[in-house]
Automatic annotation (TrEMBL):
Residues 1-18 form the signal peptide. This is Uncharacterized protein. It comes from the Eukaryota. Keywords: Signal. The keyword Signal applies.
């Protein structure tokens, strides 16, 4: 039974990868430049209130930034990450929004890993003349919000943690931003550590809760947060 389930899981994973690559090939084989697909996707992302349209646009955007350096540079030059942050804020923890949020975070991850390809420097100031031009402080606050809101989701929590770590590692943050991030991460870490300890005590007298792959164990969440705290302490 277990081997059968493992086989089906592997087949499903391979099918997902195959469909993903096929989508990328279809986008490129239509004869339309990727930049045109990018502009169409961004237009939908900025104007459409419908979740299914936004999801399709984000999938197209993910393909564009994944396969094209030119698209990544253009997105950074036109401050597309700020649009993505605004879009992420619109959605909640419902199952309907989970896939969309996952795709949005993937796009943000590709863009944060490509900052060196743009004309901006690797050390990005949080504020210039009192204004958060590149939305760096906004993104740092957003990732911590996502860590709190999706602390039970393995995929969304780990993606948010990676984005938070990259933001901390590539910005030249002012003291206020770092102090606030440190304070919020400490509170969240304390909460997850307390939850993990409570569940450990309960498990000693009652049957232990079995966590699925999609459901994040609080002890693992606490470990991830502890690693983020180490990063903050190093740069503060």
């Amino acid at each position: 039974m277990w081997r059968c389930r493992q086989t089906w899981t592997q087949l499903a994973f391979q099918l997902t990868l195959a469909l993903r690559e096929e989508s990328a090939e279809n986008v490129q084989d239509e004869g339309i430049p990727l930049r045109c697909h990018l502009k169409q996707a961004l237009a939908i992302l900025e104007t459409s209130p419908r979740v299914h349209q936004v999801l399709q646009a984000v999938k197209t955007l993910e393909i564009c930034v994944r396969v094209s350096k030119e698209c990544r540079v253009e997105c950074l030059a036109h401050r597309v990450p700020r649009l993505l942050y605004k879009t992420i804020r619109k959605y909640n923890r419902s199952r309907r929004h989970s896939e969309l949020l996952h795709q949005l975070l993937q796009v943000c991850l590709y863009l944060t890993s490509s900052r060196g390809e743009a004309t901006t420097t690797m050390s990005t100031p949080v504020a210039a003349d009192g204004q958060d031009v590149d939305g760096v402080a906004e993104s740092l606050e957003l990732w911590i919000d996502m860590l709190h809101m999706h602390r039970e989701s393995t995929d969304l929590f780990t993606l948010s943690a990676r984005l938070c770590k990259r933001t901390l590692a590539t910005l030249n943050a002012n003291k206020w931003s770092i102090d606030k991030a440190l304070w919020r991460l400490r509170l969240l870490h304390a909460m997850m550590a307390k939850t993990a300890k409570t569940q450990w005590i309960v498990a000693r007298v009652a049957p232990m809760t079995h966590y699925t792959k999609d459901h994040l164990h609080p002890q693992k969440a606490a470990s991830i947060l502890h690693a983020l705290l180490d990063v903050v302490c190093m740069i503060s």
